[in-house]
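Submission checklist for the structure archive. All mandatory fields must be present; incomplete records are returned to the submitter.

[x] Identifier: Tet-like 2OG-Fe(II) oxygenase domain-containing protein
[x] Organism: Austropuccinia psidii MF-1
[x] Residue count: 246
[x] Sequence attached
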Amino acid sequence: MNRLFSSSRPTAQISMPVSANITPSEIRRVVDVNQIKHIHFGRVAIFSSTGLLIALVEFRPFTTMSEVEVNQWDELSQFLCREKRFTDPIAKNGALLEGFMFTIGWRKCSTKNEQFGLYGSVGKIENAKDEWWNRGANLSSVGCILGQSLQYVGDNLFEKIQNCYSSLGVPSFDQVNYEGDIPANQGECEFASTLTFTMNGLKNSPHLDKDESLYASGWWFQADKWTGQIQRCVKAVYRGKIGFPK
């Protein structure tokens, strides 16, 4: 497999240094790309300059999935689209160039003597309290779909991500209540306290996130921006092409 991206930062397959800064030369290597190799299917491995695997990307056309699996992604996409009723786009995102980013789950909050808070719009939640509190089952379903997808990508990737998440002692994004104690029997699919989702062709400038977790995972699929319904027809997709530096 051709090397698609190399980094001058020191990296390790499991533990990546969170203190390392992105250098100007690395940004230029990402932005000033002269040759693009288009990939429509299969698995892409991204390595560091020393040959260590730092990322995996899996392309899975809907035509290769079972109807049950496609319906699961459709359910997830429509649920996230409906979540816009309870939250506003993240405003303080300095890297944002285009599009919108939303968050659900638990974040650090500024209230004195409190460590966590549920991210959302108080005004929007006040207008639909019952719907807000009754989202638990749907949130758990979302977590399972994403967790199973991570297990598909890597043999022990999900286990490492889940162990890292568990060590932080934080609630899962599918928990709508938190009384200060994390359940000892957390669900098998739980792996993150926060879930972000983007719409309208989100674009970010190159940047480094200072998160507690050493891992990041993401999913991309084409969907109607008003309903969240999965779009299986390529002709119906506006933007969203994916390319990697050769």
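[x] Structure attached
Curator remark: Residues 1-20 have pLDDT under 50 and may be disordered. The longest strand covers residues 96-108.
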